[in-house]
Amino acid sequence: MNAHLRTALTLAGRGVPVLPLRAGKVPFGNCPVCRDNVCGGRPNMKTPGPCSCLRPCHAWAAATTDPAVLTARPWMTAWAQAQAVAYHPGGIGLTVVDLDHADAVGWARRTLPATRTVPTTRGEHWIYQGAMPSANAVRDGVDIKSTMVYARWLGPGTGTMTTLPDTVRALIVKEPSPVRSVIAPLAAGGGECRHRTPAYLERGIAMAEQRITEVAGGVHATVYRTFLAVLSAHGRCGCLTDAHAARLFAVAQTKGESARHCVDAWSNALTALGM
Fold this sequence. Notes:
This protein is α+β, with helices and mostly antiparallel strands. It is built from 11 helices and 9 strands.
């Protein structure tokens, strides 16, 4: 048994879903059905779900904690050629902020809450407790690795892992920010603030996140109705911020909504409320 397989089995025993990587940090291809190492349950290959091809399939979708799968064909051949071990961060409720060079690391130290860090070849991985949609190049040298992606296992790291902050969630909103463009008019509304305490607004946002997270079907309609309810309750006095909207966009995208659909739903809700 080689070192990579031993590491993979150790991680799997701790509940971490893992897979082998070949040279170039690329996963092994397991079938000709899926495209570009992306496996999904629908034709557009963008959403997770049962795969119609032979399992295990590709990349993050192949990550597993089952030692029987890890040590069965064709993966025994893959482990013999593997150059690294990868894991699915979102599968265990984690987010990795991948900092690819020294300037990105410096930005993180100035901007983000301290958390567990792992040194990489060129930078660092900052690991937070909490999952979110993944995105590449959210700023120079910074990728977000969480749901539906894999990250290299480079060791346990050092430091205490902290809860995923809103500053990281907001990074997936591209500039110019679509959230800012629809939120900005609210601050000028001048309405009377009905928020008795800061916890009142926080509770409303948390309830909205939960409503979207728990929906089993009709995601489009649920996202729109939830945005409508949030804006109706909190949108006229200017207390609703970009960070709050980014949280709602992020949880909607976790359920499969695109950023464009989120913007449209938010804009439609504003129009419906006459804002």
